[in-house]
Amino acid sequence: MKTVAIVQARMGSTRLPGKVLRDLSGHPLIEVLLTRLARATRVDEIVLATSTDPRNDPLVDCVTALGYSCFRGSETDVLSRYLLAAEGAGADTVIRITGDCPLVDPAVVDLVVEAFLREGVEYCSNVATRSFPDGLDTEVFSLAALRRSAEETDADFDHEHVTPYLRTSGRFTTAEVVNPVDCSNLRLTVDETADLRVMQSVFAHFAPDIHFGWERVVALAEADPAMFAANANIPRNEGSQLTNGQKLWKRAKEIIPGGNMLLSKRSEMFLPDQWPSYFSRTKGCSVWDLDGTEYRDMSLMGVGTNTLGYSHPEVDAAVMTTVQAGNMSTLNCPEEVALAEKLIELHPWAEMVRLARSGGEANAIAVRIARAASGRDEIAICGYHGWHDWYLATNLGNERGLDGHLLPGLDPNGVPRALLGTVHPFEYNNLEQLKALVDQHPIGVIKMEVSRNAGPAPGFLEAIRALATEKGIVLVFDECTSGFRETYGGLHLKYGVEPDVAIFGKALGNGYGITAVIGRREVMDAAQTSFISSTFWTERIGPSAAVKTLEVMARVQSWDAITAIGHKVRAGWQATADAHGLEIGIAGLPSLSTYAFKAKTALEYKTLVTQEMLAKGWLASTNCYASMAHTDDVIADYFADLDGVFALIAECEHGDRKVADLLKGPVCHAGFKRLN
What we know:
The chain is an alpha/beta fold. 39% of the residues lie in helices and 15% in strands. It has 3 domains: 3-231, Alpha-Beta Complex (Spore Coat Polysaccharide Biosynthesis Protein SpsA, Chain A); 244-308 and 559-662, Aspartate Aminotransferase, domain 1 (Alpha-Beta Complex), CATH 3.90.1150; 358-450 and 461-488, 3-Layer(aba) Sandwich (Aspartate Aminotransferase, domain 2), CATH 3.40.640.10. It has 25 helices and 23 strands. The strands form 5 sheets. It has a 7-stranded mixed beta sheet, with helices on both faces. Strands 13-19-18-17-16-14-15 form a 7-stranded mixed beta sheet, sandwiched between helices. The longest helix has 22 residues, at 558-579.
């Protein structure tokens, strides 16, 4: 009878990449684990089972140099990897050890093997009843049982985690080893950075000894609990319950401030601890997460970027042509001229164009040009205009300055105090407030969104245009969000009011990074008197995508289509709310619609909508950024599923249920708001 301990390990851990080769007491973690495991008297051979992924080459090199055998198999089907490794080693009995448990204890391994032999069962472990610290998990089973489980189950979960079918199917004889004292609250495994810090502290405490027993670690935890505090709140076996996206999000928050690059995409804005967070591919209105699960997106659609739908074939083909021809060179790309010509054609009042790649920098370009053209520094703003210092200066000395403009409670840390008093907010549709600002301050620029929660009051935009002309003020319309949604161009075309400068982004490239600042020649020429320049504003993919996007938009009349879709969705929201006796408020452009429950627990209800719709295969919250991919069938399916969620909320409103009992995790964070 041959007993083989198979250690599963890989370099591609989502939460802590390369963890098995991280330093522990001057040695790679995997070396410490193998050295400790080798002292188990009931083990005849130790084999490392990893995958064929080339990223595991350094791991294999390390383990081979230590004198141990390695087997390489499937990355995702770990059950088949185990079976093939066991068969290759000639095992009769298999011990399963995971490579992230450096405190594996040979005494515990021997204890479980002896129980397996004594009880004459097919499977034995110390994990069925949690009593040992997390990180001492030992499972022992026969090769025959392992082979049967591989044949009988085709569940992805079973094949990824190796033993659930053996342990829980009821088709195998089992036994367990239970520690007399419950120590299961102590975490001695390495899944995250916090775990590694704890392990490093433990091994440093006992150095140079690496063969200390687990009971001494328990005693240390009782004597010095602070040493173990860093990972105390991580749930046991959390990794087996988290999706790959959730694991990666946890990792991201450790190495990226805020977790990602855009506040609106943070998981906490949707469904904390449950949101899939990352995508692998897209098509139409479908998004596939890192586990291959498909969701239909009735929410942000790329934060408003994909009005033609995700991965539009014509736009993507144009981009691939560019990639194959070359994206960057010492020379300029001709597509930037073609795009500038097209934007001027669509906006006859404009004569010049500058291109960028993000909305924030396009806004900064527009402000620099407008200030240079007017010769004055101070700006009156109405709306959300990005993250740059010029804009956040609104909150210097008045933390509520931007409360009505999408960023309530923002703290402008890092914005120079010297900018205090350079930016003044005014409320939408409040002409008298703007006039007062112009009378009280040397305003050189009026910068605003064309429409906010509601459209402009009669004469509002016309009066602002007249005021700007009278006072020699440069009028800038920020159409990063509103452009190409109700007209073939800027929303200002709908109202017949021409600015001096307009900014476009988001929908312009159907998901590819491209923004534009267009304006009158006498204003735009001021760019030549300043310094506005950036290398990647000259790359070719963005303009190529935009030229093709505008071509497709014109052919399918996308602005009319998504406006009609938006109206249909808004009507559906209202009808569904009415059917269940719920009060909601609906706001925004039709193709950028949002709704909110008129209730004290509105944020909880928003979270519940996201949670329940996610379970039904939707990325859905309390908004819908319409796209051409939102067909009648998609919308009908959406409302069929949303109806049941509104029914739940109605039960909560009527006192029959509590929303807190329905939520499976924390409430989502409050995000951007349009308050005027």
